[in-house]
Amino acid sequence: MKKLIAKDLLKIKAVFFRPEEPFTWASGIKSPVYCDNRLTLSDIEVRNDVENGLAQVIKENYPEAEVLMGTSTAGIAHAAITAHILGLPMGYVRSGAKDHGRKNQIEGKLIPGQKVVVVEDLISTGGSVIEVVEILREAGAEVLGIASIFTYGMKKGLDRLAAANVKNISLTEFDVIAEAAAEEGYIRNEDIARLIAFRNNPSDESWIGESK
Fold this sequence. Notes:
The protein is α/β, with parallel strands linked by helices. It is 39% helix and 22% strand. Strands 7-6-5-8-9-10 form a six-stranded mixed β-sheet, sandwiched between helices. A two-stranded antiparallel ribbon has the order 1-4.
């Protein structure tokens, strides 16, 4: 599955490598990779692979799941489609509480004690998804873990997930996509080491000048 999803994401340019012309993140960090998993929703074949993959991951790793909760906003559609496949209720967690009405931050019905799986599209440093987990826990949910499409596997993200005592299962990961990108001719084989160097330490830009 990891290789299939990796090739899917590369094909539709949901993940796009450009080691010679790095992208600049909002934080100022130079990155050789751009990721927009929202594009998976626009391609029927890839969308089917992703949603059926998420359903499989949840059935295999979180068989006790009673409700899916998407992250706002990118995880909402994936949570909805996957919940439909599994025949489960779903909801989502806002990035902040509404300033009107009931001022909800959790949308959809959540009963204290329910076993929840969080559906996320992308995990890098892990901060936003862990915030969602904590909001759900404060509301009385038993968060079984996270099901995500793609993870960078950055040390900061892995450490944060471990500290929050939350498991994440991703359909694919950075190393697999880098290898698939080389196999498919999107990047050169020698670029893989540069991409991994970025993943291991995003603040160190020495990889940019390598393999010219």
